[in-house]
From TrEMBL:
Transmembrane segments: none annotated. Keywords: 2Fe-2S, FAD, Flavoprotein, Iron, Iron-sulfur, Metal-binding, Oxidoreductase. Residues 8-112 form the FAD-binding FR-type domain. This is Flavodoxin reductase family protein. Residues 256-344 form the 2Fe-2S ferredoxin-type domain. The lineage of its organism: Bacteria, Bacillati, Actinomycetota, Actinomycetes, Mycobacteriales. It holds the Pfam family Fer2. One of its GO terms (molecular function) is 2 iron, 2 sulfur cluster binding. Its cofactor is FAD. PROSITE patterns: 2FE2S_FER_1 (PS00197), 2FE2S_FER_2 (PS51085), FAD_FR (PS51384). InterPro entries: 2Fe-2S_ferredoxin-like_sf, 2Fe-2S_ferredoxin-type, 2Fe2S_fd_BS, Beta-grasp_dom_sf, Cbr1-like_FAD-bd_dom, FAD-bd_FR_type, Flavoprot_Pyr_Nucl_cyt_Rdtase, FNR_nucleotide-bd.
Length: 344
């Protein structure tokens, strides 16, 4: 049979069930067409890029799987976000039988060394950051003998996503799973002391952190101060990073020429102020690869061989890749008079 993936890599997924997790969060259980099911195999911690049409606009957003790959139906969980067009649309209108279009799973927030690592898994989740963490926890408990410890922070008890599933997992794996709930309404925001206390005596462990930026910054700084090696920290950021103070989309030296190589084509374009390298490629008629367009998946990565560019957001490339010249073209703005970029 011919795969049902569209030209831009999206497939229609039917909503099998809608599960109301809290008053402002919903899970969608998705049915993947048989003819492209192999394209939707995923690792715990990965996400889907979902494309929906709202008020005549095609919009794309990334949502993590909250299910685990082993013997579970594909499920994403979406929390309502004030001002969030797609998250609010899903929470308000998504219904059983509806279709969403999604591209195959992506993301690097996965279990280190797959599921074979013997190291303990220590996870810190804040609010909806529990979504990929839940996938990781479920996979680790199902596929390994690793001990798992979860620190889960929420503003209040009523905002705890997966309250009942976590309670069941704790009961089923009492010898391996420890869950500590933190409520801001009782204890204030999470402090570095609380983080260090929870991670104390963890030994040689793998750490996973996901949630609001201030929460993640506190956890990361506390763990590093406690002596946890940076390579043991795995972070997944949901929010768009703010542009650092003093940095704008303008450059001191205006870009005059962009050279782009893709699929044996080489084009030269004048740069339009404020446009990313991906937008420039599209302006020249190139079918440049892209998916999430939020700086999260890495699909649009290319290498700069001459000149320089600044990424507004980078949640996909590591430091070594950036040093080698790789950029996310959907987030890259030129910072030199000439930029030569190659899609490899």
């Amino acid at each position: 049979m011919v795969e049902e993936l569209s030209v831009d890599g999206f497939a229609p997924l039917r909503i099998k069930r809608v599960v109301r997790e809290t008053s402002d969060a919903v899970s969608l259980v998705l049915d993947v067409p048989e003819d492209c099911s192999h394209r939707f195999r995923y690792k715990a911690g990965q996400f889907l890029t979902v494309r929906v049409s709202v008020d005549g606009r095609d919009l794309r957003r990334c949502y993590s799987m909250s299910s685990a790959p082993v013997a579970e139906e594909l499920r994403i969980t979406v929390k309502r976000d004030p001002g969030g067009v797609v998250s609010n649309w899903i929470n308000d209108t998504a219904a059983e039988g509806d279709e969403l279009h999604a591209s195959p799973p992506e993301g690097r927030f996965t279990l280190a060394e797959g599921v074979s690592s013997p190291r303990p898994l220590i996870a810190f989740a804040g609010g909806s950051g529990i979504t990929p963490i839940m996938s990781l926890v479920r996979a680790a408990l199902a596929d390994t003998a690793r001990p798992v410890r979860l620190f889960y922070a929420n503003r209040a008890r009523g905002s705890v996503i997966f309250s009942e599933p976590l309670a069941r997992l704790t009961e089923q794996h009492a010898d391996r799973l420890t869950v500590a709930h933190h409520f801001d309404e009782d204890a204030g925001v999470v402090t570095a002391t609380a983080v260090a206390s929870f991670a104390e005596s963890a030994g040689d462990a793998d750490y996973y952190i996901c949630g609001p930026a201030p929460f993640m910054d506190t956890v990361e700084a506390s763990l590093l101060d406690s002596g946890v090696p940076k390579q043991r920290l795995n972070l997944e950021r949901f929010t768009i990073a703010e542009v650092p103070p003093g940095v704008t989309d303008n450059t001191d030296e205006a870009c005059e020429e962009i050279v782009i190589e893709l699929d044996r084509q080489k084009v030269t374009a004048a740069h339009r102020q404020g446009e990313t390298l991906l937008q420039t490629a599209r302006q020249k008629g190139l079918k440049a690869p892209a998916s999430c367009e939020t700086g999260s998946c890495g699909t649009c990565m290319a290498r700069i061989v001459e000149g320089s560019a600044r990424m507004r957001i980078n949640d996909a490339l590591d430091e070594d890749e950036v040093e080698e010249g790789w950029v996310l073209t959907c987030q890259s703005l030129p910072t030199s008079r000439k930029v030569h970029v190659v899609y490899e």
